[in-house]
Design goal:
Length: 326
Amino acid sequence: MALPPLFDRLRLPVVGAPMFIVSQPSLVIAQCKAGIVGSFPTLNARPADLLDEWLHEITEELDRHDSEHPERPAAPFACNLIVHRSNPRLEDDAEILAKWKPAIVITSLGVRAEVNDLVHSWGGIVLHDVISDRFARKAIENGADGLIAVCAGAGGHAGALSPFALVQEIREWFDGPLALSGAIAHGRSILAAQAMGADLAYIGSPWIATAEAHADERYKQAVVEGRAADIVYSNLFTGVHGNYLRSSIEAAGLDPDNLPQSDPSKMDFSQVTGSEAKAWRDIWGSGQGIGTVNAVEPVAERVARLAAEYDQAKDELATKAGLSPS
């Protein structure tokens, strides 16, 4: 199944994943102008009424870009809604999204058919992130238009399945839009995601180390200096398994090799460990693919590099297959 026409504006088949705290208008706008989908969690807009201002800023700036550069219009942007029952802002945030009508809404941590219906009412599409085939089926049954397979190695909340396993299981029954998340940080990995059966690469951690990211400079540098071996998988910090930078865990006074399991009876991990660090603010999420991130640079430069790597990988693959390079 072909991707919806709204993806025709993409320079690369890439969605910039929404990252808590890190993804704010400056990053989203830069990603869209560079030719990939930019996105942000609505919960990043604090206080809640800031969400309306952010959507106004993003929409206005991208409209201005399109009028000034009709030959290369910006890619669409996406808003990420946490649809879990614990999100007290869900209804209010959804109402604001209905005002601005983003083309793409990414839903996480639960399935809400009424949210999907609302997005469809203004002509938008819903991509739902999943860590298993069972959750994927449930999402589509409840009206999601596409899926994001969050596999082993993805930053922040992540699954434990190999991308080969999860993508092939989903493609056994689903031919709609499918993005793949998990340690994708190089152009050849974008091509590999497509070869596996995904339509889009879903990339998060490399954007942390960009000029436009709303991240502590120490966080950005930790991504630049980090390798796959520096990523720790734990459910301690939020109750859901995720990948985090070892250095940030150590800085919080914790032993990354001996972390306790999350205790559902406790309000947060500080009550278990005694640490005053906060998840996402002090305990930094990151995926395993950061070994190829070697500098903090503008989004446009990183997208250009990914595009060059992607084109080179296609040409190399064509040569191996005995075909003429593109």
